[in-house]
Specification:
The protein is of the alpha/beta class and about 350 residues long. The protein contains 13 helices and twelve strands. Strands 2-1-3-4-5-11 form a six-stranded parallel beta sheet, sandwiched between helices. The longest helix has 16 residues.
């Protein structure tokens, strides 16, 4: 096959016997070029398959109008709503998103960070992977002063803003709801405590127990990767326990739902034998039977806030040092999985 050659403005200029400068102006809709001439040049450009090198042009202006986004899992409903919020804001401000996923791996996250840096993104929005225990791979961004904002799963850093909900309060509210409904042996399934998100959620769980004068039982605190399989594994662990917990508060809905389904398959009734509360208000939480009590977590608003703050830093409207952490509101959604415990007669 013959090698494909990019069409340039010089090819168009030669074809029409006009100057390359005129072609360049016409392709940028410059009013100095007559409308009829602009149309003739633009029509030929389309016919020849000319593509504008926007990337090179932006580099000359010292920006690419691209924002990098790194998330743990693209398959997550919550993350898809976050990205939708980011995209809405970015598009309105003339920015494009480059999106990648770490698949919960710090090694892959570091590779993604390198790719974003080498792609010369103007700024970076990141929700950290389950494994991430250091921010060393973000050093190129810190050294260059390229704006970086963490959202949802954050680590505090003097050069970065974080956008979260009050995870401790939300977890406290979910656990207290179970306690108020008569449950006392409550298991918490949470993620890696090096993550700000999961550390705050387990703190909220423990605080609620403390307010009810219930000591924390280490056997009732499970640390998992919060995947669907983790929910299945947690259920199998619960089935072997004596005594079993009478309720579960899971740090996300996917883990809670798969734990529920596995226990139901084994013959346990929900909430009669074991109650449940989750976190995220995933669509599945509405259709599982019974419906899952959960924390409504504003993903779209988080995406909007993250993109807005980053673009404000890029345009000089705000500086990172002004506000280091932004906290969004959340809400407890009560459904059938945590109905009031019935007293045994």
């Amino acid at each position: 096959m013959p090698e494909y050659r990019e069409i340039t403005i010089y090819d168009i200029a030669r074809e029409l016997a006009i100057s390359p400068a005129t072609v360049s102006r016409a392709l940028n809709n410059h009013p100095a070029v007559k409308k009829a001439t602009r149309k003739k040049i633009q029509d030929l450009a389309r016919q020849l398959g000319y593509r504008s090198n926007t990337f090179a042009s932006n580099l000359r202006k010292k920006n690419t109008h691209t924002i990098g986004v790194i998330v743990p899992r693209l398959s997550s409903y919550f993350m898809s709503t976050v990205i939708a919020g980011m995209e809405q804001v970015a598009r309105a401000e003339g920015y494009n998103l480059i999106i990648s996923q770490s698949s919960e791996s710090m090694i892959k996250e570091a590779d993604n960070v390198d790719t974003m840096f080498n792609s010369r993104v103007d700024g970076l929005l990141v929700s950290l992977s389950y494994e991430t225990d250091t921010l060393a791979h973000f050093e190129p961004f810190f050294k260059k002063g390229i704006p970086l904002i963490f959202f949802d799963r954050i680590r505090e850093h003097k050069q970065c803003m974080g956008i979260v909900i009050d995870n401790q309060k939300a977890a406290y509210d979910a656990t207290k709801h179970l306690l108020d409904n008569g449950y006392r042996r409550i298991m918490h399934i949470g993620g890696n405590p090096i993550s700000h998100v999961y550390a705050e959620r387990v703190k909220g769980y423990k605080k609620a127990l403390g307010d009810y004068k219930i000591p924390v039982d280490p056997k009732l605190v499970l640390t998992r990767n919060m995947s669907e399989q983790a929910g299945v594994d947690a259920a199998e662990h619960i089935l072997k326990m004596k005594p079993r917990p009478d309720a579960v508060f899971s740090a996300n809905d996917a883990c809670a739902i798969y734990c529920m389904l596995t226990l139901k398959k084994a013959g346990l009734r929900i909430p009669e034998d074991i109650a449940f509360a989750g976190f995220n208000n995933d669509p599945m939480s509405k259709v599982v039977e019974p419906g899952l009590t959960t924390i409504d977590y504003p993903g779209y608003a988080m995406g909007e806030a993250a993109a807005t703050q980053l673009i404000n830093q890029l345009t000089g409207i705000s500086v990172m040092q002004a506000t280091n952490i932004i906290i969004l509101r959340s809400e407890l959604i009560i459904r059938g999985s945590s109905a009031k415990k019935k007293r045994k007669s």
